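Re: that chain you flagged

S.,

Sorry for the slow reply, it's been a week of failed gels. I finally had a moment to sit down with the sequence you sent. For the record, here it is as I used it:
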Amino acid sequence: MNSVRVPEPAAAVVTAKKKRVSSGTRREKGEQTRRKILNATLKVICRDGVRAVTHRSVAAEADVHLSLTTYYFTDIEQMMKEAFQQFCDASQPDLENALEAAYKYLGSFTRSELRKRETREKICHEMAIMTGRHVYNQIIHNPERLALEQILFNEARLSPEIHKLGVRQREKQIEPLITLCRIFNRKDPEINAELLFGSITSMEYHAVTLHRDEVDEAKIVALLRRLLGWLGGLKSA
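Prediction finished late last night. Pasting the structure tokens below so you have them in one place:
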């Protein structure tokens, strides 16, 4: 015999729906508060350094009650780790968008064309402009991101977990550069990518300390052109 499902009273159904909506709203509000605390942690790190991060300083920056920071994060290390993780996740799409244009440009040349000096000179010139524009825009529009990235790499010794995060972030940035260097010059692409990464980050981190009017895009492009020309086997770039 088939069992007959007895419908719930209308009032009970409405009450159950209200509880689900209320529970979902609380979770969403909790996530918003959590993100707010993590963003505040990054602001404190960027402005005052990692040693300034306390539950009290983060609560003040986030404009939330002190009890909320201790509720969501049991210790400072967890708070900083998750804040840096959020930062890394948010910065990845920007890097991918910048590299997509470079891949597309390099992919427009055949292997035989890439062996010609005039093609390499053209690539060197265009890639220097593209990369220089990206670096300049990062310096002008995202100085906090560059400062946080530098802090992440420099302060990776704070804990094993933050160290791993810093290593992964660095690898994510170097890996696509290896691909680019392999297309441009097949000899030692890993070493070339390390040189390119180090030069670009050095330019970015130095420029963060300057006033925006002192940042010279033309000089950045010239430096990159010389470096890319050398990596591409051009003696005088």
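What I noticed first: The chain has ten helices and no strands.

Talk soon,
D.
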